[in-house]
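Protocol step 4 of 6: record predicted structures for both targets in the notebook before any analysis. Target 1:
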Amino acid sequence: MRIGFDISQTGSNKAGCGYFADSLILALSDLDTENEYILYPHFGTTFWDPNAERNTRKINRPNISRKRMGRDFESAFSFWENLPADAEERLGNPDVIHANNYSCPSGFKKARVVYALYDLSFFDYPDLTTEENRSKCFGGVFSAAVSADFILSISEYSLTRFLETYPHYPKERTGVAHLGSRFFSAGPNGIIGKSVGRLAPDKFWLSVCTLEPRKNLRRLLRAFREYLKSSEISYPLVLAGGEGWMEGELDTFIEQLDLSGYVLLPGYVSDEKLCWLYKNCFAFVYPSLYEGFGLPVLEAMGFGAAVITSDTTSLPEVAGDAVHYVDPLKEDDTTRAFLKLGVNEAYRQILRKKAITRAKRFSWEKSAQKVLSFYKQVIAMPKFAP
């Protein structure tokens, strides 16, 4: 079997989709030495990284190669938007094409398209993203609903929402492969952390996310302000993550809440620093409004962090009974969670132990095994014809 694999978002400053593609192809390369993989640093028409040829994932294995479609933005997008007659030959004659960046190319005569489904937040909460992003995401998922040969969802929740939204799509052409934590692929003993600023271990709250409205940051900050008013402990809150959209004035909002001395924004941090933050935080706080999976929650649990997170969308599917749940729309609920963990050390330690146990249920090796079985499954099927 020859598998064409989209690695377009595995370059610098990766976020959710990029971490999924990067971790999955690494796990597949470790697991599968029989099949051939062709990596595509440029893929589809929803994402462009001008440095993709240099920065995207490279794997030195005999059964893994790379193919670049187009030398610049115009030629690459032209190829994917209007597939030429010899497209499959130019792509290396793949049996499967795995799309990972929301784009869903169609019109292949032989190759089966496996489409990675992350979430339908753009559909359920259209006001929480930009018009451009909403349009790209909707276009990609809609194209998948009418042309993809297999839908690979990262959670049962996302798959359920997809099938509710597109009830015509055959359930037998779908499957779920949960994510794993990239930090524990080689075992936690191999992780080396790097301290961040002057933060003291066990003396700060942590949240990790792309800074965008879907992450519910403003309610989190208001809840944190109320917590500080009621608590004798004044540990700072660290909001680690790169800038997304529609939160360009977050600094101003923090100043207006008089939280400038209590909220730290280190920006996009390296994996070494992120490991240190997860391992040394007092607790991890993630009251997101909507998740397709919730990878930061799993990563934090893997390090034994006590976790506060939302009781919505896919998060209970990931966290089980190992976290403290809040209603993300109720700021006082999050404030009470801060207060409870702040004073109840026994409860915090219970959550930490549960978190480690729960996190062990997920791994990229398990994900890769499922994905490989889905490749074999879709090869045995005829091309999808809605």
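Target 2:
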Amino acid sequence: MRGLSSKLHGQVAAGLLVVSTAVIAILATAQKAQSTDLTTPSFLVATRDLREAPFQHAVILMFPSTEPPLLAGVIINSPAKVRVRDMFPQVRQLKGTQETMYLGGPVEPDEASVIFRASSAPGSATRIFDDTYVATGHDAIVGILKDPRIADLRVILGKAQWLRDQLYSEVMRGAWYVVPAKSDLVFCDPKDLWSTLVQGGDLQEVEAGQAPALNLPHWRFDATNWQRQISPN
């Protein structure tokens, strides 16, 4: 029996090692903010030290601001009690996962935007990265909500916004991890998103040495896409 028990224990340990290795591999792209720049599509992930509302346990999808030198993004893991159809009653064909609105941040809390996945930009929508787009304005959002080709979407109220030096100061104080943005994570179940990403950030922080300074962009907007103007550090 002792031999069988040892064998089973070894099999379980090996299985756990495989799972742990897979999780670490998935999260290995999470990096401490000081070593990452926001000129690439990124999430800001609140570290365990950040406890101020509304950013405690927040995961923020960063996207370029239309008002340089501001940096902006939306919290993607904070469901609101308001339903989408409460604001857009003319839209009836929403799926269950699309019914809930999200709180995107404390700036302009009454202004709605929609982030979604599409093979190409419909209407006035703007590409953030890969197949992920954002649209603002009542009519544009209604058009997205009514488009049967769009399955993954989030309607979000408000946004988070910083001056470049303000955000730089926060990440240097250890308030945020920066994680490369992935479309699948943007639209996944928000319940465990923060705990999954912050675990990856913790692992990287333990392994990281002295990192180079964070490179934060200034942004300019045109009618077709986000264009970057990188400011010097």
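Step 5 preliminary note on target 2. The mean pLDDT is 74. Residues 2-230 form a domain with the VC0467-like fold (CATH 3.40.1740.10).
Proceed to step 6 after PI sign-off.
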